């Protein structure tokens, strides 16, 4: 390693600079990618709240452009999305690398390798628990902006934040934290663990070991593994994703989380938990593959090995 090791110049493995670099990589990977699919997310969230609102995604975009003031309105919620998922990505990816290393140190290298799937699961769950604390307020703002009908709820993300806090209190930004954890923790456990094992399988099938492959070849493996992992993530987390949208939009004042979930489930039933699944698979598969592409490209650019 270079004696001038730093966050952006071959940081020493498992040093403070290493985890800081992974944190920056997570921010860069998640904020822009989530923001870029805001039009998909907007229609998905509205159809989760009211399945009869639009006949299809194309119909949704057409109606939004026609009735709400032009093409820019399909990006309703983009500010909150960019802020929230930049913070979440930073703590998720950086936290995962940190917890994976810490949990691996609790056992011998042989034992850690043998039980690596358990370590992947525990590390990703720990990282996501922390990351969601930073995501939750902005997710609440985003959902309110996207699902308030008739729109607009506010002029921009900061106006929406101010309105929610002034009218409902700061605690209102965290009323969806439990369903968010229920959605995001299984999602991230699936995302990181399936990715690690999928790329492991891919490398085992290739004619050359990973150490002899170019950075571009390794990043290609990351992209492929990321898309396959994303499909699994979408299915695992979708019911909780529907419930997050419903609770942030419909939870009544003084109603407990359990009461809100029970009331909403009684209204939409089990089939209602799967509204918008197809578009979520498209959205999450694309998101996950590009996030791993960007994250591992960033790691390679600063002199770190790619994941897996």
TrEMBL record:
Keywords: Membrane, Mitochondrion, Mitochondrion inner membrane, Repeat, Transmembrane, Transmembrane helix, Transport. Pfam families: Mito_carr (PF00153). This is LAME_0A02014g1_1. The keyword Cytoplasm does not apply. Belongs to the mitochondrial carrier (TC 2.A.29) family. It is found in: Mitochondrion inner membrane. It is a multi-pass membrane protein. SUPFAM superfamilies: Mitochondrial carrier. Gene3D superfamilies: Mitochondrial carrier domain (1.50.40.10). It comes from Lachancea meyersii CBS 8951. GO terms for molecular function: phosphate transmembrane transporter activity. Solcar repeats lie at residues 17-102, 115-201, 217-301. One of its GO terms (biological process) is mitochondrial phosphate ion transmembrane transport.
